[in-house]
Amino acid sequence: MAWKWIATVVGGILPVLCIAHVHIYHLSNGLTLIVKEDHRAPVVFSSMWYRIGSSYEHSGITGISHVLEHMMFRGTPQYPAGQIEQMISQKGGEQNAMTGDDQTVYYQRLSTEQWAISFVLEADRMRHLSLAQADFSKEIQVVMEERRLRTEDNPQAVTMERFMASAFVNNPYHHPTVGWMTDLQHMTVQDVRRWYRTWYAPNNAIVIVVGDVKPGAVWALAQKYFAPLKAAPLPKPKPRTEIAPLGSVHINVQVPAKLPLLIMGYPVPSLVTTPVSWQPYALEVLSALLGGSDSSRFTKTLIRGQAIASVAQSTYDPYTLYNHLLMLVGIPAENHTVSELKNAFLQQINRLQTHPVSMDELNRVKAQVVAQNMYEKDSLMNQAMNIGVPESLGLSWRVEEDHVRRIAAVTPEQIQQVAKIYLIQNHLTTAVLTPSEKIHGKK
Q: Is the domain of 150 the same as that of 213?
């Protein structure tokens, strides 16, 4: 990686933005570098983000992004398996990786003096991964065992997986991130090599460095290690728009379990897909109001008040590449049924649709959402996540920076409006876990 080669491309490397200690640069090969200064401690969190995850997969190769994540730790010709871990640990650091629906992330946490090794390792394995058959044969077994332990042997996880597959037909969130077992069983190392060559390229990557660093120094290292890597032609994913629902969907999952479980979901837009910019923020506040905290309506009414639920929660993630779900999850209390809990959930939805939220309650919920948002910024990793997630979706990191202001602007009328538009019976998917012991009359 000679400086001579870098000098040839320097003319095409342009720093783009510097706001609030966030510095953004673009290499001529398409790689984006984002640096955020945080000098509270001599620590640096360096992360490599690829715009690839399970939502890019299709039937037959589901789980391949996650399998490739495992293979990324099996080494390169320059740094064979085990050497990367040894180098990081010898420098007192730690590393890991995550595969999600819409992105795959590799990260290291190291001291200010030692963090540059992250660029050395990530630049090397971006285009030079070994991907040997012997390593694949071992890792695919590890992934299948992971699926057995985390999903197939977990009744709640099985129910959630079947729920998602029922809620979505054409939307890629139909598939689990870990993949379907039959696809894993028939996956080949050639499949993984093809996936790696297709998506792991500088023009599909974002490097985010947060911590005790000087942006200019980080920029110089990025030029040294990443600029020599060549861009690759990236496929343009075809639209995978979910078909319009023709009525509500209900599934029963019958597996051995100690407790029943209720999952309800309504299709809703994300920040990427929303037709109106304020709607995702109204949906986020609505979800928090229903079941986002110990002072939410579900907790006060269904758990403490009526005592018909032992668990009652609401979740919504606005940061997804495609439309997703606002989900209600609950476990009925002893001597109460799933049917009772579902009716109670529906009553709370109806209340939102027919009675505007009071300003006192709305302000309390907003304060909780904002406090959680601010608390998350205390961690270097969370700061990197707050930048990387929107950027990997094609949004700007400034969306997250603007989050608090947009939440504060949500009105009671907007909450009522999104409840009426999206939380409708004909769009509802329901999954019920019925413990099979009870089905067979066992206790």
A: yes
List the CATH number of the domain containing 155. 3.30.830.10
**DSSP bridge pairs for 268:** 324
Stretches where the chain sits below pLDDT 70 are 1-20, 437-443
**The predicted structure's pLDDT at residue 194:** 98
Report the DSSP pairing between strands 14-19 and 22-26: antiparallel
d(CA 64, CA 50): 14
Residues 67, 165: one domain? yes
End-to-end CA distance of the chain: 67
Alpha-carbon span 251 to 249, nearest angstrom? 7
Alpha helices, DSSP H, located in 91-177: 117-127, 133-147, 155-167
Which residue, 139, 149, 172, 1, is CA-closest to 72? 139
Q: Which amino acid is at 376?
A: E
| Domain membership flag for residue 241 | no
Sheet holding 429-435: strands in order across?
A: 249-255, 429-435, 261-268, 324-332, 309-315
Q: Is the pTM of this model over 0.70?
A: yes
Classify the C-alpha dihedral 317-269-321-149 as positive or negative: positive
